[in-house]
Write a structure and sequence with these properties.
Blueprint lengths: L3 E4 L1 H5 L8 H12 L3 E4 L9 H6 L8 E4 L4 E4 L5 E4 L4 H11 L5 E5 L4 E3 L6 H9 L4 E3 L13 E5 L2 H9 L3 H6 E4 L5 E6 L4 H11 L7 E5 L5 H6 L2 E4 L5 H4 L4 E2 L7 H14 L2
Parallel strand pairs: 1-2, 1-12, 7-8, 12-13, 13-14
Antiparallel strand pairs: 3-4, 4-5, 6-7, 6-9, 9-11, 10-11
């Protein structure tokens, strides 16, 4: 019996135009009412999912969210940090140095804010900050102190620029960072121990759940680790072929209420709701 469901947001929970449909809301509410724990599991910061947490009634004192691709785990109501895997100042400076020869635009995140490293942020960076509902500020990397908490670095650019960036990554980066491409126009650098899968596993173990009591729903590469971990790996019809190869169940697309369909088929039908 499924007792915990981890749901990705972009490309999964939300439609292509970033809407949360009534059908999906109702299915999640029914799952909650049947005793299932729901956790949103996203690359966004907590502030970037606040509207959806509110609409899904996931702002109570017992609900947590896995954000920043697993680098942050927080209580949704109090925003209390339960786990925060950060980058060192040296790692931040290495990413910044690497950015000098790249056309893609470098940004960094802390617990709640987004930072640009250019004198003036590009329109792509400004638009992404708006999408994430986060405040955008300039960061002077050279003035960072050892106690500065940086959650992740993220490049934004044309998909071809991101392709080039990936090809030019120093070999040492693969040993020192968890790197992931959530969407074609970005590429992220996180603490080596961070991932959605590791954060989900830690949560499941704290709830004393077995793997076959956990379901993960996703669509893209940053969902790989949680799809590999969960006993029930649900991939959206709009998901990548690589993720579909991991699936135990392929649901409808994000524009066809795929999350609602999966919940009805795998949870509600089995509980009689």
């Amino acid at each position: 019996m499924i007792k915990l469901v981890a749901i990705d947001i972009d490309g999964t929970l939300l439609t292509s135009d970033h809407r949360l449909t009534q059908n999906v809301c109702e299915a999640i509410q029914l799952a909650k009412n049947s005793g299932v724990t729901i956790v949103l599991c996203t690359g966004r910061p907590l502030v970037g999912i606040a509207p959806y947490l509110e609409k899904l009634d996931l702002l109570d004192s017992t609900t947590i969210a896995i954000t920043q691709n697993g680098a942050l785990v927080q209580e949704t109501q109090s925003k209390k940090v339960l786990n925060h895997l950060t980058l060192t100042v040296d790692q931040v400076k290495r990413i910044y140095q690497f950015s000098h020869n790249q056309k893609a635009h470098l940004t960094f995140f802390d617990e709640s804010e987004m930072y640009h490293t250019a004198i003036k942020p590009s329109q792509l960076v400004v638009d992404d900050a708006k999408l994430l509902h986060t405040h955008l500020t300039h960061l002077d990397v050279d003035k960072l102190t050892p106690d500065t908490l940086v959650t992740k670095g993220m490049f934004l650019g044309d998909p071809t620029e991101i392709d080039t960036l990936i090809q030019e990554l120093p070999a040492s980066f693969k040993d020192d960072f968890y790197m992931v491409r959530s969407v074609p126009y970005n590429f992220e650098f996180l603490n080596k121990q961070a991932s959605k899968g590791k954060a989900l596993q830690s949560l499941a173990e704290s709830l004393q759940l077995q793997v076959d009591e956990v379901m993960a729903i996703g669509d893209a590469e940053n969902d790989r680790s949680m799809l590999e971990y969960a006993g029930h790996a649900v991939v959206m019809e709009n998901g990548t072929e690589e993720m579909k190869a991991l699936a135990t169940f392929i649901t409808k697309s994000n524009d066809e209420d795929g999350v609602a369909y999966a919940i009805h088929e795998l949870i509600l039908k089995k509980t009689g709701d």
